Amino acid sequence: MVIIHLGALGAVLRATCLLKPIKRAYPNSQITWVTDAPAQHLLANNPLIDNVYTSSPESIQSLLSYDFDLGYCLDKATKAVGISRQLNIDELKGFSSDSKASILPINQEARELWELGLNDHKKFFVNQKPETQLMTEALGLDYQRDDYLLALTADELNLGFLRRSSWSEQGKYPIIGINTGCSNALPYKKMSVEKNIELVKALYRNFSVRVVLLGGPEDSERNQKIAEMTDAIVSPSRNGIRDGLCSVAACDMIITGDSLGMHMAIALKKHTIAWFGSTCAHEIDLYDRGEKILSRVSCGPCWKRSCDKEVMCHEMLSLKAILLATKDFLAPSHEESSAFEISLDLNLA
Q1: What is the pTM of this model?
Q2: Is 278 in the same domain as 197?
Q3: What count of Cα atoms within 13 Å lies in the side-chain half-sphere of residue 319?
Q4: Domain assignment present for 342
Q5: What is the average pLDDT across 305-320?
Q6: pLDDT greater at residue 292 or residue 337
């Protein structure tokens, strides 16, 4: 069978929750996954995926010689639909299009997910299902709240261990990773440099921890600015997605907006404090390993790529709420230490 799910990066990683339901339904299946580069790196080394191809013309050409009994097209996008039509697929589920290139659900189960894309009120305020459940049910699979599936290699695990040892000063301090960035397509899913600086200083003021700044190449400059004003550690940001996973793996807890970094943390089963402003918190399942913090705005969620508000939703985020969630995570590990006391700065917003 073939899965066609091209992007975005975090969405592709989240869709690995489908692998176990697929294997329950089709135990002897061989799974091929087609995705946009560089998402193929998030699928590498996955024990339930047999082949990973990018959506490049050369890769698609090489797939034309194969026959697939079943295909899943997860993207409500013409590019993914076009690929599904090029391949030799006996039965297709998910999404396709009509003669006018309008995206339509193929099977009845996919209609709910399709309708949410057409109705903002229903998507933002009526639906309470996480995206993982919506996807699973849309493909006619048995939803059992299956987790993401991501596997690190032995070398990657070792690199994560070495970073953890270094950043924690040989296990002396818990490591809090802050994913400071997000996709440039939705810039309001990240806090400002100034807000991040305030958060790092508050964490150091209230807890005996080490703070590591996480992100990709687009976050290098802003992470350096944050580090210059704090004692935060800057993780490598230009070594690729798999190296970034090693940095996330080295942390005990992750603070993040709705981004690839959040999905990495969920996939690696990290305690995750995820904050939301413009996007839908109910669409994310933290699998009981963390807490969601919602920005104090009346206009969210909105999923807008641009905004004319004087104060952005990410600036209305309560740092006090993040500190309280951090306290709840850190306190159990220090219950037997009389020297460890938590005193929150209640003057924080």
Answers
A1: 0.93
A2: yes
A3: 22
A4: no
A5: 74
A6: 292
Domain match, 197 and 284 both:
yes
59 pLDDT band, cuts 50/70/90, is very high
Residue ending a domain, among 93, 108, 138, is 138
2-29 per-position pLDDT tens digit: 999 998 999 999 999 999 999 999 999 9
Residue with the larger pLDDT of the pair 303 and 167? 167
243-248 — which CB contacts under 8 Å span 24+ positions? 243/159, 244/214, 244/215, 244/216, 245/150, 245/152, 245/156, 245/160, 246/152, 246/156, 246/159, 246/160, 246/163, 247/160, 247/163, 247/177, 247/212, 247/214, 248/177, 248/214
Task: Collect contacts of 236-244 with beta carbons under 8 A, ≥24 apart.
Answer: 240/38, 240/41, 241/9, 241/38, 241/41, 241/42, 241/216, 242/41, 242/44, 242/156, 243/159, 244/214, 244/215, 244/216
Cα dihedral sign, 272-275-279-281: positive
Alpha helix (H) ranges present in the chain?
9-14, 19-25, 40-43, 57-63, 78-86, 111-116, 120-121, 131-138, 154-167, 193-206, 220-228, 241-249, 260-267, 319-330
With respect to residue 248, please indicate whether it lies within any of the assigned structural domains: yes
User: Quick check: is 90 in a domain?
Assistant: yes
Residues 190, 67 share a domain: no
Report how far apart the first and last C-alpha atoms of the chain are (Å, whole number). Answer: 51
| CATH number of the domain where residue 170 is located | 3.40.50.2000
Of 289 and 336, which is predicted with more confidence? 289
170 lies in the same domain as 228: yes
Q: What per-residue confidence (pLDDT) applies to 313?
A: 66
Cα separation, 198 vs 255, whole angstroms: 14
Q: What is the pLDDT of residue 187?
A: 62
Q: Which domain holds residue 30?
A: 2-138
Task: Please count the structural domains in the chain.
Answer: 2
Tell me whether residue 150 is in a domain.
no
124 and 214 in a single domain? The answer is no
The answer to whether the bond into 27 is cis (omega within 30° of 0) is: no
pLDDT tens per residue across span 72-106 = 999 999 999 999 999 999 999 999 999 888 999 99
CB 215 within 8 A of CB 254: no
